[in-house]
Amino acid sequence: MKTNLVIDAEETFFDYEQVARVLDYPREARLPVQEPTTITITSVAEMQQWSRLQKAAGRRIAFVPTMGFLHQGHLSLLEEGRENADLLVLSIFVNPTQFGVGEDYEDYPRDLAADTALAEKAGVNVIFAPSASQMYPAGYASRVDVEGITDLLCGASRPGHFKGVTTVVSKLFNIVQPDLAYFGTKDFQQLAVIRRMVLDLNMPVEIVGMPIVREADGLAMSSRNSYLTFEERRQALVLSKAIAQSRQMVAQGVFDSEKILAEVKAQIENCHKARIDYLKICHQLSLQEQDQVDQDSVLLLAVYIGKTRLIDNGFLLA
Ligand code: AMP
Fold first, then answer.
1. How far apart are CA 317 and CA 296, in angstroms?
2. Whose CA is nearest to atom 18 of ligand 1?
3. 253 in Cβ contact with 279 (< 8 Å)
4. Is residue 270 helix, strand or coil?
């Protein structure tokens, strides 16, 4: 029979093995608590097994899904996850099903060695880095689809994109079995779609949205910023400036969306390397366009800078 064990922090010669034998603890529970070390798992079955064991031991898992090439934005999600759960899992998977034909799947930046070093520093317990064939083996035929809000904005420009996202995130949730999962508001629509999916499909995970992390000059951090040439990097500031400009107009009493969007559009079009994909003022929850700005209004934009498609967003009144 197990009895309560009081561990004296001052006791330097504490024999964990002996106490564990007496109390009949499993071997892993006999070891002193150690600094977290990062392991990398590439197999779906092993990841699932690891999570099952941890959860059976009553540990809470925080999860940050990414496509890797980590930057400070990803690290802010990891930091929050580290603080709010017992264990932290990071997935690195460039998901082929969320890229359209002619998009940058092949070119997407990858650097597992650098990501591993950053993950270690961030206190990640497990990096889950499966291959595409692990995630989509021969015969794979299922998709998860959220209707409605996936037809707008990025969904309109990138048909099928969100079906790829919801499918892979559902799979990752089933594999990692997290209690908490962290997403950036940088991908504002993606976060709304994931929240909808989790609610609709009763997934037992809490979704946490995190603020956009920006470079000192305002550019939202993104793995895709690495595509930009020196001149493009300079012109990429049109996105964050568009948000600042529209906020300023609202602060001066302009609430008419059409008026705001016309001025911002003209400003963006002044940059010869910038081409607007979409520029809209939408309600933060429905993502429907709004004629008048209110507390729920978000400016959402996608702009090509040269060949690189960048997105950004910001609340206009909050
Ligand atoms: P990605 O690797 O681009 O798929 O992004 C993985 C997660 O990091 C997503 O939830 C993103 O929204 C989030 N993320 C990406 N960039 C940023 C950023 N600049 N600030 C905060 N979160 C971000």
1. 8
2. 73
3. no
4. coil
pLDDT tens digits, one per residue of 137-156: 999 999 999 999 999 999 99
Q: What is the DSSP letter of 114?
A: H
Q: At residue 251, does pLDDT exceed 90?
A: yes
Q: Can you identify the CATH homologous superfamily of domain 36-210?
A: HUPs (3.40.50.620)
- CATH class held by domain 223-315: alpha beta
Q: Are 44 and 57 in contact (CB under 8 A)?
A: no
Rounded distance from Cα 313 to ligand 1 centre (Å): 13
218 near 241, Cβ under 8 Å? yes
Beta bridge partners of 66: 92
Please tell me the distance from the alpha carbon of residue 310 to that of residue 318, in angstroms, as a whole number. 23
Centroid of ligand 1 to alpha carbon of 69 (angstroms)? 11
For the chain, what are the domain ranges? 1-34, 36-210, 223-315
Flag whether the pTM goes above 0.70: yes
166 neighbors 194 (Cβ within 8 angstroms): yes
